[in-house]
Amino acid sequence: MESKCTVTPKKSALTGSARKIKDNAADWHNLMLKWESYNNTAFSAANKIVNLKISSLSHEKMLLDDTETPRDSTDKEELEKLCSELLELFEKQQQIQLKMEKLTSTFKGVCDLEAYQCSGDIPRPILFHTWPTNLFYETSLKMSEMYKKEISLKKTIVGEIAHTSDQDLLMVYLSCWLYQPFIDNNIKVLLESMLLETGHRPL
User: Fold this and answer.
1) What is the Cα–Cα distance from 45 to 41, expressed in whole angstroms?
2) Could you point out which of 18, 51, 62, 121 has its C-alpha 20 to 30 Å from the C-alpha of 160?
3) CB 195 within 8 A of CB 23
4) What does the pLDDT read at residue 2?
5) How far is CA 70 from CA 60, 62, 111, 144, 178, in A?
C-alpha cells in the first residue's frame, strides 16, 4: 500500500510556498476592493459632516449679526451620528490595513524559508513565471507602507474634522480623504503585476 507521503500531487494543484503566495495575491486584491468601498462610503459621511459644519458656521455668523433665530439641537445630533458613522468606517479600514501588514509578514516568512532551504550555492526557484520570491515581498511591503501612511492621515482627519472651524481646512480634509495622497497611482500596476505573475490574470 502506497503511503500518503509518496503520493504525487496533481500538477494543477499548487502546494507550499507557491500556494501561499497565490492566495496572498488574491487576498491583496480583495482587501483593496473592500478598502475602496469603505473609503467611498466614508467620504460620503465626511462630505455631509463638512456641509453641516459649514452650514453651522454660517448660521453662527448670522446669529452674531442678529439676522437669525437660534436653531435647535437637530444639527448637533446629526453631526454626532455622522461622526460615529465615519469613525466606524475608519475602524474597518484600519482592520484592512492591519490585514495587509499580515500578508506582507507572510510573504517575508516565505522568503525567509526559501533563504534557509536554498543556502549556499543552491539556486532559488522561480515559483511562477519570472518573479523571484523576494519580489512578492518587496511589492507587498511597498503597497502596505502606502496604506499605513494613509491610515495615519485618516486617523488625524477623523479626530479633527468635527472640531475644525476653518472652512478651507475642512475642504483640505475632504479632498485628502477622497484622493488618498499616500496611495500612489501605480499601486494598481503593482497589484495587477502580482496577479498576472500568480496566474489570477491571463498573460
Assistant:
1) 7
2) 62
3) no
4) 39
5) 8, 10, 64, 48, 33
From residue 184, give the alpha-carbon distance in Å to each of 38, 125, 188.
Answer: 18, 31, 9
As a three-state string, the secondary structure of 22-52 is: HHHHHHHHHHHHHHHHHHHHHHHHHHHHHHH
% of the chain beyond a pLDDT of 70: 84
Report which of 200, 158, 179 is spatially closest to residue 36, judged by C-alpha positions.
Answer: 179
Give residue 11's pLDDT: 40
pLDDT tens sequence across 78-105:
999 999 999 999 999 999 999 999 999 9
Q: Per-residue pLDDT averaged across 62-90, rounded?
A: 76
